[in-house]
Design goal:
This protein is 77% helix and 0% strand. By secondary structure, the chain is mainly α. The protein has one domain. The radius of gyration is 18 Å and the shape is globular. The two termini are 25 Å apart.
């Protein structure tokens, strides 16, 4: 049964990590409902999602790395991501302990963030400025910094890192698919930094007795993340982000309805 739960949680992590629906909140809620709360397990399956997005964009990563010594576009791309990731790293260093100790334990905060995020997404979809950036890799550094500021909001569980960066991208006048893909690019350095930080915190909980469960969760998270990226981009091009916004509102309302029952 624990192997099945590990696979289920890995799939939840993988399917929600790059959608604007907050993988952190889904894992917190699913883990509590299933009675399976292991910080080391959660950190390691997030590694699966991180490696999956790197695998999906492996050609782009290799091109940028090879071009850093001589290619101006490669250096600008790296600078774009460095500038964008900075605000979240600073905010995480200052507020990370408070977020994990206080906000992660508040179901009402999570539910409220789900609903508020859905409403904001609908408003941005309706009133967003006309896009001027059609390719994520061509995002100006100044606009990338604006997206990075929005990413700081994802420290609140339920906000969603991808949701915050996608909304930020649209506000910075990126086209919908470009905003989604920029969110994927920005996820790489953000997730690497978060993984290293969280691994240092939970390293004492890592042990051989949980290796099989971690491996199962890691593999299912990797597969689910790798599979969901392309369909998500297709959905965004066809329908925008409104379906995810309504899902967030319904999910948050459902959480609030559960509180009287504990």
């Amino acid at each position: 049964m624990t192997y099945f739960i590990a696979a289920l949680l890995g799939a939840i992590q993988g399917l929600t990590e790059f959608l604007p629906v907050s993988s952190t909140a889904h894992l917190l809620i699913a883990g509590r409902l299933l009675g399976y709360e292991d910080p080391a397990f959660t950190v390691m399956i997030q590694l699966g999602s991180m490696l999956a997005i790197m695998w999906v964009y492996r050609v782009k990563i290799a091109t940028v790395v090879r071009g850093l010594p001589s290619d101006r576009d490669a250096r600008r791309f790296a600078l774009m991501l460095l500038v964008a990731v900075g605000p979240a790293l600073g905010a995480g260093a200052l507020l990370g302990d408070y977020v994990q100790v206080v906000l992660y334990e508040s179901g009402r905060v999570i539910a409220g963030a789900f609903i508020a995020g859905g409403v904001v997404m609908l408003l941005v979809e309706r009133f967003r400025p006309a896009p001027v950036v059609l390719e994520a890799e061509r995002t100006p550094v100044s606009r990338a910094f604006g997206v990075g500021l929005c990413q700081m909001l994802s420290l609140v569980p339920g906000v969603s890192r991808s949701g915050a960066t996608i909304v930020g991208g649209m506000l910075m006048r990126l086209d919908r698919p470009a905003a989604a893909e920029f969110s994927f690019f920005l996820a790489m350095p953000t997730m690497v930094a978060a993984f290293v930080y969280e691994l240092m915190q939970v390293r004492a909980y890592l042990g051989a007795e949980r290796a099989a469960e971690i491996a199962i969760g890691f593999v299912t998270a990797f597969i689910a993340s790798a599979v969901v990226v392309k369909p998500f981009l297709f959905c965004v091009r066809r329908s925008g982000f409104a379906p995810f916004a309504w899902y967030r509102i319904a999910f948050g309302a459902g959480l609030l309805a559960l509180f009287p029952a504990g």
